[in-house]
């Protein structure tokens, strides 16, 4: 998904339209994921739900590429020159018009230009009158052909001498692309179509991650496996994804150096279908369908441990969302090169790989709740560090914080979900945690970060987030101390 936003821009969607679509998408994502999680627990078939979302993700991505482009805000125009030589014959130097057999074309901003040495006199009407023309095929002669016009408005400019005895030109602009002549309603329908398909794609796309976690949780429980080592391969794949996307875009580059980002989308869709095939071959045992799910959900919601857990995941997700959305914004302010952008973005995966191999041992030794506490501190250090950046290279070191607040954190979250989840609610709890952190958290983090940046600046916003995470760490630490003391007394 490296070129996702760039592709949307290429389709003609404005930044405001993209923003509105991606504001609605998280709400649909959260509700859609919750419904599918409930269904998964009810029927006990996480594998089938995962395959369904993989297939729908690939298909919806292909659909995005086949929705007609919307009108771009500024259409380019080709200048067309028509020559009147004193009789009723008009000629033009546009070979494409000459080759047209029966075409209706639209021209705009037309004006008469008298032959050299004559004076142009404007009549009392529009100087730049638009008109339509019926073009018929005529033999090409020196790249000039005769054309027959049907004017919507009569030409209103005259030369100072008799028009029949002097040549003059009619200069017009013709829209280059067909979509430039779209009506407002036609464009609105295409934007709605894009928005609908994008929301479907974003929902199924996020569901693949959520239900990968659910399926992995089932397999880890069944085989007593290490979640971190399974996640290792996912992170490794995420590191190779941008390279594959860039390679496919480069190979699909046309001879005129026109870049077609759709190539990376087709590659992604193919990989989704291949992954669905691999999942189909996996031996994932059907788990016992959930019973009394509503009662168990209410009991879980009343649990102080579960309530605090979801609150912590939300706060950590808000911090992650803010940093994820505005990190490159801050790096751009200090004139970071394209190469360093890629390097910084890759470091969270590179740093985390070796720790994922021993994550089970780390989580068991440190404890899930202590890792949550360390994640707050890691976010605080990262925000503080980024707020003082004057050069890009220290950001590479600051990405070390992602070992705790991203890689180890999610292993701890999945482990804690298993510990607090009643039988029959595995999918519901796991997907809820993922949706709160990566969907709701990203939305609130993006909103909060944008609000702070618009009222202050990026560095101040990062320092405010650093102070907030420090405060969260202190409060959560006090809560853990009180809980431990209360447990000892009882």
TrEMBL record:
Q: Which key words are in the record?
A: Membrane, Transmembrane, Transmembrane helix
Q: Topology with regard to the membrane?
A: Multi-pass membrane protein
Segments traversing the membrane: 20-39, 48-67, 191-209, 230-249, 261-284, 305-326, 338-359, 371-389, 395-421, 433-454, 460-482
User: Where is the protein localized?
Assistant: Membrane
Classification via Pfam families: MFS_1_like
GO CC terms on record?
Answer: membrane
Residue span(s) of domain Major facilitator superfamily associated: 4-464
Q: Does the keyword Membrane apply?
A: yes
Predominant location category: membrane
* UniProt record similarity statement: Belongs to the major facilitator superfamily. MFSD6 family.
Q: Name it.
A: Major facilitator superfamily associated domain-containing protein
């Amino acid at each position: 998904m490296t070129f996702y936003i760039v592709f949307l821009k290429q389709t003609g969607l404005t930044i405001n339209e993209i923003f509105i679509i991606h504001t609605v998408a998280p709400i649909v994502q959260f509700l859609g994921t919750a419904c599918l999680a409930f269904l998964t627990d009810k029927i006990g078939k996480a594998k089938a739900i995962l395959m369904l979302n993989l297939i729908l993700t690939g298909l919806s991505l292909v659909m995005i590429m086949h929705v007609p482009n919307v009108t771009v805000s500024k259409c380019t125009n080709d200048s067309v020159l028509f020559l009147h030589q004193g009789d009723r014959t008009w000629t033009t130097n546009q070979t494409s018009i000459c080759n047209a057999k029966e075409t209706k074309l639209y021209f705009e901003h037309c004006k008469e230009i008298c032959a050299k040495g004559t004076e142009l006199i404007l009549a009392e009407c529009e100087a730049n009158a638009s008109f339509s023309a019926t073009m018929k095929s005529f033999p090409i002669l020196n790249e000039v052909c005769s054309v027959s016009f049907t004017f919507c408005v009569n030409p209103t400019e005259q030369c100072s001498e008799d028009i029949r005895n002097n040549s003059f030109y009619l200069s017009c602009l013709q829209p280059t692309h067909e979509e430039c002549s779209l009506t407002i309603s036609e464009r609105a329908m295409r934007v709605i179509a894009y928005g609908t398909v994008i929301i479907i794609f974003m929902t199924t796309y996020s569901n693949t991650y959520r239900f990968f976690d659910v399926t992995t949780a089932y397999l880890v429980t069944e085989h007593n496996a290490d979640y971190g080592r399974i996640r290792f391969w996912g992170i490794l794949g995420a590191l190779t994804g941008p390279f594959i996307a860039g390679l496919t875009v480069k190979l699909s580059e046309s001879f005129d150096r026109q870049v077609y980002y759709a190539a990376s989308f087709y590659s992604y869709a193919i990989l989704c279908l291949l992954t669905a095939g691999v999942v189909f071959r996996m031996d994932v045992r059907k788990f016992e369908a959930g019973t009394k799910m509503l009662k168990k959900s209410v009991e879980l919601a009343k649990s102080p441990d579960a309530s605090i857990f979801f609150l912590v995941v939300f706060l950590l997700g808000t911090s992650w969302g803010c940093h994820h959305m505005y990190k490159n914004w801050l790096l751009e302010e200090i004139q970071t090169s394209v190469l360093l952008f890629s390097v910084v973005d890759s470091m969270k995966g590179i740093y985390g790989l070796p720790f994922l191999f021993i994550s089970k041992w780390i989580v068991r030794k440190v404890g899930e709740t202590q890792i949550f506490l360390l994640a707050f501190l890691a976010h605080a250090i990262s925000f503080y560090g980024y707020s003082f950046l004057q050069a890009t290279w220290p950001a590479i070191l600051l990405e070390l914080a992602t070992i705790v607040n991203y890689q180890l954190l999610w292993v701890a979250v999945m482990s804690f979900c298993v510990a607090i989840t009643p039988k029959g609610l595995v999918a519901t709890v796991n997907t809820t945690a993922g949706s709160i952190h990566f969907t709701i958290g990203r939305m609130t983090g993006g909103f909060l970060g944008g609000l702070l940046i618009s009222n202050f600046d990026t560095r101040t916003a990062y320092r405010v987030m650093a102070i907030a995470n420090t405060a969260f760490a202190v409060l959560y630490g006090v809560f853990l101390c009180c809980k431990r003391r209360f447990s000892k007394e009882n």
